[in-house]
Amino acid sequence: RAVPGSVRVVVVRGDGPSFSSVPLGPLVPLGPLGLDTLLLPAVSPSDADLSAYQQAFDWTTDPAYVSVAAVQGEALGAGLQLAMGCDLRILTTDAVLALPEVTLGLVPGLGATSRLVSALGYPKALELAVTGRRFTGSEAHQLGLAQRLVDPAQLDDEVEALVGELLAPDQDAVREIKALLLGAERRNQTDQRAAERAAQLRQLAHRGEAAGQLPPG
Prior knowledge:
The protein is of the alpha/beta class. 42% of the residues lie in helices and 12% in strands. It has eight helices and seven strands, in the order E-H-E-E-H-E-E-H-H-E-H-E-H-H-H. The protein has helices spanning 47-56, 78-85, 112-120, 122-131, 137-143, 155-167, 171-183, 189-210, and strands spanning 9-13, 66-71, 74-76, 88-92, 96-98, 135-136, 148-150.
């Protein structure tokens, strides 16, 4: 998904009572989860297809903007994985989340496994992914999966407030910080400090140009 360069914050939310309700499609019982149906492809996808699906769920991590998931109602399977791909999450107290893929003999394959471990640690990530159990917005907030928890009636106001906070700082500084944080886990300390220095020099040059103290370039 392409996002215009002028966009600084992207809010992802459902159009209706749920962030991501179960889609219509072939009926498949989900046993202990108590869900009624889940859409499964009629033809097994190829490795290239799965790679394309994963890439489609990575657009939220682009350093050009900050992505916010506003989650109300159900966020199940791919819906929860989409929310987890966002930079920040606001959950309502009535939110219901689950990764039910395991009940179909499948895995959460849209980037959720690494994000789960990063956000929750290995034991809790394993428990949620292997049991496929439902958990609430309140539990997600306690675990650190959600940055803010609100009553359903307050969701719009909380989203507006957070967007305002994200738009207040210098746009280039926010982009640099997001890129630094995204790369922190894969860089060693020496490389991370070098990346910080490079980002800082770019920002100093940017501020100097804005103040008319340095020539462009």
